[in-house]
Every structure is written in structure tokens, then in C-alpha cells.
Specification:
Elements (H helix, E strand, L loop, with lengths): L1 H20 L7 E3 L2 H5 L2 E2 L5 E5 L6 H6 L5 E2 L11 E10 L5 E6 L5 E8 L2 E8 L16 E6 L4 E9 L11 E4 H36 L3 H19 L2 H6 L4 H26 L2 H4 L1 H27 L3 H11 L1 H14 L5 H27 L7 H106 L6 H26 L5 E3 H16 L6 E6 L4 E3 H22 L7 E8 L4 E8 L4 H7 L5 H11 L3 E6 L3 E8 L1
Parallel strand pairs: 1-5, 13-15
Antiparallel strand pairs: 2-11, 3-4, 3-5, 5-10, 6-9, 6-11, 7-8, 7-10, 12-14, 15-16, 16-18, 17-18
Helix pairs in contact: 4-5, 4-13, 5-7, 5-13, 7-9, 9-10, 9-11, 11-12, 12-13, 13-14, 14-15, 14-16, 15-16, 16-18
Length: about 650
């Protein structure tokens, strides 16, 4: 009994060792009928797997290690990037040849070897990261075409090298070529419809922004472009269009596109809900989130490019997604009470985006890479829902705006009518007041006109009397000059006659320019100089040179003072300056130095002031010149050199 008890464990151990050393023989997949070939048959129950941790084995080595192959259901991979060899027997018992398609999902590098007995009859290289130049015609990145003959027993040997650091999923399936191509065509048609709808919405949003320049359309464009291109990239179209010979580069854009879409939805939420004005703290958090999203994109791109660890990059993305999802929930919770009906439509779309993001994260956590197949369809449906809800919200906003505008217009019309009635009453009252005032003004105007007429008559009479009196004084003086025997008295009388003549000229000019009450300096100076020359220089021996601005005008009081100054200067020059002078000359220059000042220069080339002072009698002429210059608010400067020069700076 003791021996039997001790032998049982020993026999069990021997039996286990024998079973372990027996080669693993997988079941043979036999395709008997065309109907069976049309169905997609999973190869998982028929596959046996061997992990080649050395990554250097070839097909001969793999076929010699049949004892190391284990059923796929019992396989647990040690290293995610090591080479895995899969084998299975296959038999075709149909009456005719068949073209079969071997398909799989997401594996980066797959080499398919087909043996007929011990003879290798086919070798195909495919995979998601396989360059286009190595893929045979009629094959794709995730399927190969196998030609099989009836009655033959084949062995499929598959070499799988999955470099994304995900645990590979060996979901190989076999299906007749026409049936597979029909299913693939339906899949591509579905992709075309969904991506076409995304493209149409993108164009619509772009045109809407071009027409309206409404900034939220820009963020909507970013969201549609990012999510739409994520679907295109995940389904493999982006790689075939852009990077067919470097497919791993196309996969770098996968998370970049999803981040672009996320950036668009966050900015759309902040802008359309006007967080900057109403929730500045939440707006700053959103800004930090978008900056962090850009940094996360750089980090993930670096991980994918330098390490090829797509699993790590995706894990980081899923772990950090708690922050944007928390921001979305917080934004809806905080802003909901103040959102308008139009803004709440976007909140519904954001809610759908949140739910789809949760589904994508949970699916990626559970099914890993296998979740990449349904996620693009979920994201496309979410994008369409967000766009439709946003467009509905904008339409509702426009409708509400029209309602508010019409209400405001009605209120404005009512207010305008009320204002018009008040204005009409005020106009009527003011019109009555103006009529009374106009009657009073008319009466005052009649009185003023009558008074002005009397004043004008008196002024005309006064002017005539002044003119007559000046002419009388001038005439009496001219009659007395021949009768005066004393030379000094006669000269004084002549000087008075010159001053009276200057006054007469000013009075005459003012009467002729009564409207302007001003005198033209050129005409006045010429007439006064001619008159005094007839008195003192009847032979016109002395030259009088004038340079006077013809546009220069002198006001009435200025003209009288200027005339007396010029009379005194000319009289002194005629009487005392040119004793025995061969070429006596007087220069009179009057110019405007600027808009407010006139420069009047009077000079002669006579004996000068030092010789002249001895012959000048005691008169008030020189002091009169200075007094008159002060009355005109002018400055006088006298220079004595080759004659005598007076410079007057007079404001006009």
C-alpha cells in the first residue's frame, strides 16, 4: 500500500513529461463546400503559436520547433515585440480551385508562408507598417490572397512581428476572395459616406465662417478636421494617400489629429459660451488645458518617433484624459444656469462628445488595438451630432435674435411716436414764441432802419462838413502863403498845408472805400508824395522810388497816422536833405513780413541827421513821428549812414 502511494506521484510526473514533449498537433481546417468558403472562418481554434524571443529564427528553424508550439488559446506572450510563429494545417476538399483571402487586424509585420507538404509554394509580406513596395499585387496591408487546389493538404506558417508594444491579437480569418472583396467594398462604401458627410460639414462650416466671420466656426472647423482626419488615418486611408512607403509615419498623426479635434471642441466651448466674460477663472483653466494638450502632442510624437512604443503613448493619453473630461463636466455644471437656449444645444453636443470619449477610453482599455476599428465610426457620428446641434443652436440664436430685434423695433417705434408727439407740441409752442419774437424783431428792425437812415444822413453830412472845412483850411492857407514875408512862418504854413492835405486824402479814401473802412497803401502814398513834391519840388528834381505791396490795406485810424508820419518825413527830406546833391533820391518800401505785421522803410540819400540837425528849426516834427508810431503800436528804428533811414514795424 505504501509503495502504491509513493508511485502515484511519480507516475503522474512521468506522464506530464511525456505529454509535454509530444509535438502540438493543431486541428486541420477543412473547407468542403463553396458555401463554407463564402463564410468568414476564424483560424483561432486551429492555430498553434511559438514565441521566438531570440528574433533570429527562420522558417526551417520554426518547423523544427514544432514541439514548442502551443494552442493559441493557451498562449501567453512574454515580450510584446518578440517574433511569434503561428502554424496550422489546411485542406481544400472542393471540386475546383479557390482563391482565398487570409485577413487580420492591426499587426505591423506579417510574413505568410504556404507549404504543400515540405515544399514552400508561396511567401507573402504584409502588415500595417509594411512598405508598399514589399506588398504583392492583389494583397493589402491586412490581407493576402492565397491560391489553393482541391485535394491538397497545406500548412500555413505565419511570422508575426508586432512593434507597437501592444499584446498582438492573432485574429486571422479565411474567406473566399469574392465574398471578402464584397464585404470590403461595403466597408469602404460606409467609410466613404461617413467621411463624405464630414467633408460636406467641413465645407459648410468653412463657407459659414467666410461669410459671417463668426469666430466659433474656426474652432468647429478644427474639431471637424481633427476628428475626420483621425478616422481617415485610423482606417488606413491617410497612409495609402500620403505615406505608402513609410506607413509608420502616417500612424504618428493618429493622436495628433485627435488632439486637434479636442482642441477645437474646447475652444468652441469656451468661445461660444463666452467664458472669458462670464467665467474668467474657468477660461484660464481652459487655456492651460489647450497649452497642455499641445505639450502632450509633442511628448506623444516624441515617444512614437524615438521608441515606437505606441502603447505607452496611448496609455499616457488615456490617463491624462481625466483632465479634459473633468473640464467638460465642470464647464457644463458651472455654466448651465446662465446658458441661453442656443448655447444649451452645444452643451448637448458636448455631452455626446463626453459619452463617446468615455466609450473610446473604456474600449481602448479593454480591447486595446481592437478598439481602433469601431472608434472612427463612433467619432464620425459624434462629429455629425456636435455639428448639427451647434448649427441648431446658432439657428435658434438667430431666431431669438430676430424675435428680440422685432420686439426692440416695436418698442423703438412706440418710443419714437411718443417722442414725435412731444416734439410736435414743443415745435408748436416754440413756433408761437418765434412768431411773437419775429413780430417784435420786425418792429425793432423798422426802428433800427429808420435810426440807421438818420445816422447815415448825419454821417454823410458830417463827412461833407469835414471835407469842406479841410478844403477851406487848405484854401485859406494857400492864399496866405504869398502874403507872408517871413520865410520861417511861410515854411510852417506850408508844413501845415501838407498835414491838412494828408488828412484830406485819408478822408477822401475812406469815403470812397466806405464799406471796407480801409485805404490802399499804394494809392494813398503815391498821391500824398505827388502833392508834397508839387509844393516843395515843382521841378521834380528829386526822384521818389516806391516799392509797395499793392494788396496792402490800412485801416482808417492807421491811415491817418501813417499819412501824418509820411508827410513829416517827406517834408523834412524836401526841405533839408538835398542841399547841392547831384542825384537826390527818396525810397519808400512797404511789405508784409507775415500775416500781422508790416515793414515800412523810408530812406533818402541826403546829408544825414548830423548835418541836418543844425539846419532844422525847433519843430514838433520828429517828436510827432515817434508819438504817431506809438499810437499805431509800432516800433521805430532810425539809422544814419549815407543819408537817413527810418524803419517802422507796424501791426496791421
Amino acid at each position: 500500500m505504501l509503495i502504491k502511494t509513493l508511485a502515484q506521484p511519480f507516475l503522474s510526473c512521468i506522464l506530464f513529461i511525456l505529454l509535454a514533449t509530444l509535438p502540438c498537433q493543431a486541428d486541420t481546417l477543412t473547407i468542403n463546400t463553396p458555401a463554407q468558403s463564402l463564410q468568414k472562418t476564424s483560424l483561432v481554434p486551429y492555430l498553434a503559436v511559438w514565441e521566438d524571443v531570440s528574433n533570429i529564427s527562420d522558417t526551417n528553424t520554426a518547423r523544427r520547433h514544432t514541439a514548442d508550439f502551443v494552442p493559441l488559446a493557451q498562449f501567453k506572450q512574454q515580450y510584446p515585440t518578440s517574433f511569434c510563429w503561428l502554424r496550422m494545417p489546411l485542406r481544400l476538399d472542393m471540386a475546383q480551385d479557390a482563391a482565398m483571402i487570409l485577413s487580420f487586424n492591426h499587426l505591423t509585420f506579417v510574413d505568410v508562408f504556404v507549404y504543400d507538404g515540405s515544399q514552400l509554394i508561396a511567401h507573402k509580406a504584409v502588415g500595417a507598417f509594411r512598405s508598399r513596395q514589399y506588398i504583392a499585387p492583389f494583397d493589402g496591408r491586412e490581407f493576402v490572397r492565397l491560391l489553393m487546389q482541391p485535394g491538397h493538404r497545406y500548412e500555413l506558417l505565419l511570422k508575426v512581428h508586432h512593434t507597437k508594444y501592444y499584446d498582438p491579437t492573432f485574429d486571422f480569418a479565411l474567406q473566399q476572395q469574392d465574398a471578402f472583396l464584397q464585404n470590403d467594398a461595403r466597408r469602404k462604401t460606409l467609410d466613404a459616406w461617413s467621411q463624405g458627410a464630414i467633408a460636406l460639414f467641413f465645407v459648410y462650416a468653412l463657407l459659414s465662417w467666410v461669410v459671417s466671420r463668426y469666430r466659433p466656426y474656426i474652432w468647429l472647423l478644427c474639431y471637424i478636421l481633427g476628428i475626420g482626419m483621425y478616422g481617415v488615418c485610423t482606417r488606413g486611408y491617410f497612409i495609402e494617400w500620403v505615406t505608402p512607403y513609410h506607413p509608420e509615419v502616417g500612424w504618428y498623426f493618429n493622436l495628433l489629429f485627435i488632439h486637434l479635434g479636442s482642441f477645437g471642441i474646447y475652444m468652441l466651448l469656451m468661445d461660444f459660451w463666452q467664458m472669458r466674460q462670464h467665467n474668467p477663472r474657468l477660461y484660464r483653466i481652459g487655456q492651460m488645458l489647450t497649452i497642455g494638450l499641445a505639450g502632450l502632442s509633442i511628448v506623444q510624437l516624441s515617444i512614437d518617433y524615438f521608441t515606437g512604443n505606441f502603447n505607452l503613448a496611448n496609455t499616457i493619453n488615456m490617463c491624462l484624459s481625466v483632465f479634459p473630461l473633468g473640464f467638460i463636466i465642470s464647464s457644463i455644471w458651472i455654466c448651465w444656469h446662465r446658458l441661453s437656449k442656443a448655447q444649451r444645444y452645444l452643451a448637448y453636443g458636448i455631452g455626446i462628445f463626453f459619452v463617446s470619449a468615455i466609450i473610446a477610453i473604456v474600449g481602448s482599455t479593454i480591447w486595446r488595438e481592437q478598439a481602433l476599428s469601431p472608434i472612427p465610426y463612433i467619432s464620425n457620428v459624434t462629429t455629425l451630432a456636435v455639428f448639427l446641434l451647434f448649427a441648431t443652436g446658432l439657428k435658434e440664436d438667430l431666431r431669438q435674435h430676430e424675435i428680440d430685434k422685432h420686439a426692440a423695433l416695436r418698442e423703438l417705434n412706440t418710443l419714437q411716436q411718443f417722442q414725435n408727439s412731444i416734439l410736435e407740441r414743443k415745435v408748436e409752442a416754440r413756433t408761437s414764441e418765434l412768431m411773437v419774437t419775429n413780430r417784435a424783431l420786425s418792429e425793432q428792425s423798422a426802428l433800427l432802419a429808420e435810426r440807421n437812415k438818420k445816422i447815415e444822413t448825419l454821417i454823410n453830412e458830417l463827412n461833407h462838413r469835414v471835407k469842406n472845412n479841410l478844403q477851406l483850411l487848405y484854401g485859406l492857407s494857400s492864399l496866405q502863403v504869398p502874403m507872408v514875408k517871413d520865410d520861417a512862418a511861410r515854411e510852417i504854413l506850408r508844413g501845415n498845408m501838407g498835414k491838412i492835405k494828408a488828412m484830406m486824402l485819408v478822408n477822401e479814401k475812406l469815403l470812397s472805400f466806405e464799406e471796407q473802412s480801409s485805404v490802399r497803401a499804394h494809392e494813398f502814398t503815391t498821391e500824398l508824395a505827388d502833392h508834397l513834391q508839387r509844393i516843395y519840388d515843382s521841378r521834380h528834381r528829386i526822384r521818389i522810388l516806391q516799392n509797395i505791396d499793392r494788396s496792402l490795406l490800412l485801416q482808417g485810424k492807421q491811415a491817418l497816422s501813417f499819412g501824418l508820419i509820411l508827410t513829416e518825413l517827406l517834408t523834412n527830406s524836401f526841405k533839408y536833405a538835398f542841399a547841392d546833391h547831384p542825384d537826390p533820391t527818396i525810397r519808400i518800401v512797404m511789405q508784409l513780413t507775415d500775416e500781422r505785421n508790416m515793414l515800412f522803410t523810408y530812406s533818402d540819400n541826403g546829408t544825414g541827421l548830423s548835418h541836418r540837425e543844425q539846419s532844422l528849426p525847433v519843430t514838433m516834427g520828429v517828436s510827432l513821428i515817434h508819438d504817431l508810431a506809438r499810437q499805431m503800436n509800432g516800433a521805430i528804428q532810425v539809422s544814419n549812414g549815407q543819408g537817413l533811414t527810418y524803419q517802422f514795424q507796424i501791426p496791421v
